[in-house]
Every structure is written in C-alpha cells, then in structure tokens.
Amino acid sequence: MDLSLAQAVAALRRGGLVACPTEAVWGLSCDPLDRDAVQRLLDVKRRPVEKGLIVAAADFAQLQPLLDLSRLPADRLDAVLAQWPGPHTWVLPASATAPRWVTGAHDGIAVRVTAHPQMAALCRAFGGPLVSTSANFAGAPPAYRRGQLDPALLALTDGALADGDTGGLAQPTPIRDAASGALFRA
User: Fold this and answer.
1) Pick from 52, 53, 61, 37: nearest CA to 124
2) CA pair distance 121, 112, nearest whole angstrom
C-alpha cells in the first residue's frame, strides 16, 4: 500500500512498520521505543534481537535520550558530529534507558542523523528517531529501488512511502565505533 507522509506517521504511532527510502536502500522503520513494534519488525525480517538495530533521526537532539555522551571523549563526539547529517552510522554509548530490543547484545547503539530528505521528513513528522533497517528478509538482498521490495515482505508491513528514491549510495552506510573510529561495516 502506498502511504503519504501523514499516513506513514499515523501507522508508526499505532505501532506499525513502514518501508521508506534511505541513503542506499529501502528501509523498514518503526518506533524504537515501542517494544511490540520492534518485535514485529524483527519477526518480519527474521532477525535476532541480539544483533541490534540502527536508529535514524532528523537531528542530533532526537537521538540524545538514547545516548550516554559522558562515556565518549569530546573530540570523538566532535568527529561524529562533523559527519552529520549524512550517510554515516556510528555506534555511540547507549544510555541506561536505551531499549535492549534496539541495542541487542551491545553496550552501544548504532545511530545516524540522516540527510536523506524522505527519511528526515518522516523522523521530523513522527517527532523522534526511527528504527532504520533494510527492508528485506534476513539473508535476502536489499532493495535499491522501490520496485525491488519483496511483495511478501511488504504484505507484512503497513505500507511504503509513495514518494521518494534512495540517496543513490552503492551499499548501505558504513558503521563505525564512535570511541575508536574503527570500522564495523564498510
């Protein structure tokens, strides 16, 4: 089902799952603070909770409640902030209130301040950050175009944004450790 921005936000607020374009691939989003929504997303993707999930936001302020910045040296935070908004995912120290169903088996949380116009608009309209994971079943190839979304997967969601294209990256965003700069995913 094609969704307008308002319909997508309404679905997310009801605990729904929405497919939307991101920097490289079509993603699947839900409210990271809604345990049932995240569990539904994990079930749809056939993904174990231990892996953790990426959370995207329209601005850094949306992410701050999920982070414990006291555990990150100021110069390392500056390095992270210098790359945002943009197609860079960083693992930052998670706050005590960051949900384990998002962090998985990790002490950090993978976050990104997106520069993608539709993803940023969705986060702004929702009023907070959103889970951002590829819209595919675990082990299946990601969808770089809307037409590549698996109809079986889409049938398990509340729909997909009607407008928008990916940002054109050839592969999903790199993931780096904010404390060291080490690369987790190229």
Assistant:
1) 61
2) 14
Does this model's pTM top 0.85? yes
Contact predicate 111/57, CB 8 Å: yes
Q: In what order do the strands lie in the sheet with 18-21?
A: 2-3, 160-161, 18-21, 26-29, 133-134
Instruction: Specify the amino acid at residue 123.
Output: C
Give per-residue pLDDT as tens, 35-51: 999 999 999 999 999 99
Q: What is the pLDDT of residue 175?
A: 94
Three-class SS of residue 173? coil
Distances, alpha carbon 77 to alpha carbons 21, 35, 159, in Å:
27, 28, 36
Which tokens is 18 given? 């929405």
What tokens appear for 118 in the block? Answer: 């539709």
> Rounded to whole angstroms, how far apart are CA atoms 26 and 149?
8
Alpha carbon 93 to chain centroid distance? 17
pLDDT tens-digit profile of 59-102?
999 999 999 999 999 999 999 999 999 999 999 999 999 999 99
**Residues 96, 88, 86, 39, CA torsion sign:** negative
Alpha-carbon gap, residue 92 to 85, rounded angstroms: 16
What fold is seen in the domain 7-172? DHBP synthase (3.90.870)
Give the integer Cα–Cα distance in Å for 31 and 18: 10
The owner of tokens 């990426």 is 54
